[in-house]
Amino acid sequence: MKLGIIVVLALLAAAIATQAMFADLGYVAVSIRGYLIETNVMVLLLVFGLAVFAVLFLLKLLAAPRLIGEAAGRYRAGRAGQKLTAGMIEVAEGNYARGEKLLARAASSSDTPLFNYLQAARAAHLQGEDERRDDWLKLAYEQTPEAANAVFLTQAEFQLDRGHHEQALATLRRLEENSREHSYALALLGRLYYRLKDWPQLAEILPRIEKQGRVKQATIDKWATRVHCEALTNAGDTAALDAALGRIPKRLKTSLELLEAYFEGLIRLNETDRAEKELGARLKSDWRGPLVRLYGLVEASDGSRQLKRAEDWLAKHADDPDLLLTAARLCLRNELWGKARSYLETVLSLKPSPEAYQEYGHLLNRMGEGDAASQAFRDGLGMLAGEPVARIPHLRADES
After folding, report:
1. What does the angle CA 355 – CA 360 – CA 366 come to, to the nearest 5 degrees?
2. How far apart are alpha carbons 379 and 352 in whole angstroms?
3. What are phi and psi of 133, to 5 degrees?
4. Each residue of 356-365: pLDDT tens digit?
5. DSSP state of 394
6. What distance in Å separates the CA atoms of residue 139 and residue 114, rounded to the nearest whole number?
7. What predicted TM-score, i.e. pTM, was given to this entire model?
8. What H or E segment, with its residue span, contains residue 209?
9. Whether the Cβ atoms of residue 262 and residue 241 lie closer than 8 Å to each other
10. 77 Cβ contact partners less than 8 Å away, ≥ 6 residues apart
11. Domain spanning 1-143 has what CATH number?
């Protein structure tokens, strides 16, 4: 249909041009180096039009290789995009081997080979092919050196996923050389130091991690708590303990884990009177079970005064099993066996625990009640084991 219309239009144009050629449309004479060219206006216009057409045709002909190349490139890119999509679908559906092949094949003709290689590396990783995974990552780096950070981060994530902590540490340190304040790299490094329990290194980078704002505050607080807890636990003297306490940020000052580490540090360093005084003051405004139990483990110089303080608290916390256990321990220290027994039996009736049974067993042994003490120890062990511990039968001589 289109060809017919073009033919009709061409014939019509030719007829009009022929008619115009023989019509009197004016006279043109051109003299060039002694030569005289005479024609009418219509012929001159026709020659000029043919010349323009010839020039345009020549330009198109010269541009043809480039245009053909661009068209072929668009075709290859389209095919590469289709293979990339197909490969990602295969990986998402769990067909890792087929997905890896499709992604790799499309890489050479893709406009974004980096993405293909990274996804191929992921597919290899999911198959457990770590060596082939690293080969794809190497190709990704070679094809796009400016994306080195992305490649290193991907490699570190894979290594962390495998539990190859030392390799991940080497990768992240290499990345840190290129981009010291890379927020995600710092976050991964913090997670790695936490797993490795490398508290000094974690303490060093924590301020930088917090400044970047990439890691949730709850996670930062968890990491910081462990760092400060280790510092308190490893303090060799009271000066070091106080310095470690001073480095704790205000928002963590009431952390139960850190408070326990601090007071246990005082007890360990034989600062028992200071521990008793500060722990007693803390319990006035911050009554928590673990701190109450810890008060019963402090061996202050004035044991009777310490016991009186605990019994004064019983006026307000009469049914608190943690306080009753603490009072029992202080009674034991003051050799008040009957009162200690009463407190312990009350604890066991309210909220039995392995440590209460242990203290009760020791007391019964001291009071000469061996069988009852053995039963108390078994009950305590049964709570730890999750089920009662059977009595071991005594072997008779004729059964041995």
Report:
1. 130
2. 9
3. -60, -45
4. 999 999 999 9
5. P
6. 8
7. 0.71
8. helix 199-212
9. yes
10. 109, 110, 111
11. 1.25.40
